[in-house]
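idk why but the lab printer keeps eating my pages so im just putting this in chat instead. protein + magnesium ion:
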Amino acid sequence: MSLSSLRASPMQTPDWDQIKKAIREQFGETVFHRWLEPLMLKAWGAEVMLALPTRFMKDWVEAHYAGRLTTLFRNCDPAVEKIRLIVENTLSAARPAAMTSAPAHEAHAPSAAPQASGLDDFSSPLDPRFTFESFVVGKPNELAYAAARRVAEAGSVSFNPLFLYSGVGLGKTHLMHAIAWHIRRTNPLRRVMYLSAEKFMYQFVRALRFKDTMAFKEQFRNVDVLMIDDIQFISGKDTTQEEFFHTFNTLVDQNRQIIISADKSPHDLEKVEERLRSRLGWGLCVDLHPTTYELRLGILHAKAEAMKCAVPEKVLEFLAQRITANVRELEGALNRIIAHSQLIGRPITLETTQELLQDLLRASSRRVSIEDIQKKVAEHYNIKLTDMHSPRRARAVARPRQVAMYLAKQLTTRSLPEIGRKFGGRDHTTVIHAVRKIEELRGGDPILSEDVELLKRLLQS
Ligand code: ADP
Ligand code: MG
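predcted complex ->
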């Protein structure tokens, strides 16, 4: 089917009844009846024009369902780029003020203010930027990526649940949205529900308050894929946990796919009931590791390209080296320098970057880790990383190890015993000794002194 013919000839508009059926399937009865049934198709093409009878409905649908509708239409016809909603009140002239004879959907609308309709759609909106295509894969996240892809592509349940965990800003939410987008695109009839644990709790507490837990449960009845983000949020919230546990079990029993994310492994989730913790660990658990330099650089390249902005390689390398905490910060830094250069109309340079990101750089330099130090020092002296932990006392490894301990004391807030532990379980007195030794040597050994300065700059500046 050629796209242009579709646009040229209204005769080829896809079967609207069929599409409505798909909408009904995807959004469920409640949402459909309340908001989407009244949709009228006005034009089909790159822009699909749809009419709704009231302004209120139009705004509501625009805010809550436009993204999913677009995806669904695009699935019917790849020529669709966006949708436009208009208000067309076929009744306006004749409508009496009291609305006694308004059609069913009209009767709903005025009472269905956002607060009152909380139970009609639990799904949180998906970020259109979070797709598999925009996810940069590297060693630290390749396993999580592969598992997410597998779940997204599988027609049936693969691992149940898929449990993704990591520190903040490393891509859990991104992967979850990517799964949802993928399923919505390739299989629009599968109902995907994505929501934060916080929202799950909020909805549940509301349902309790309004004595409407049946409607709450009903929401999950037809879900094929349930994703709950940041499950650690329900730790310590006993009734919510209980309800979640039931929802979880019911869906697993019905062979529905569940995907969970958290900031820790199931085992480490404190204040979560033991039976739930163990249940969460039944499927596949994968963690996203902290980023490596290579991954950070890869992400920066991808983002700069996506923003169609030529950022000098030197600047990208600098950012990848210095902003190590997580991807969110990395992105933030890149956005900032791009925005700045566009605003003042000057090219990005290393100098402006350094100046612009002063605060960020200072903050991230405070977060140098002992592992980073060990790695850099080992690289610099060309010894094995394991020598940092080994009992070997040969000068060739002992001196670099002392340098690393010295830097750990200087650049981190770790205590002496903590530092000792990280160096193969050494005593804190060994650390004190190392620190004194290096201080002493720096006075009389310019080469060592220079080495230490260089390493320090590399690690923190
Ligand atoms: P989390 O949920 O683990 O806290 P997010 O998924 O919200 O982290 O990621 C934070 C930001 O970093 C998002 O903007 C996301 O797109 C981006 N991001 C994280 N990992 C990657 C990656 N591998 N490739 C591209 N962008 C990434
Ligand atoms: Mg997240």
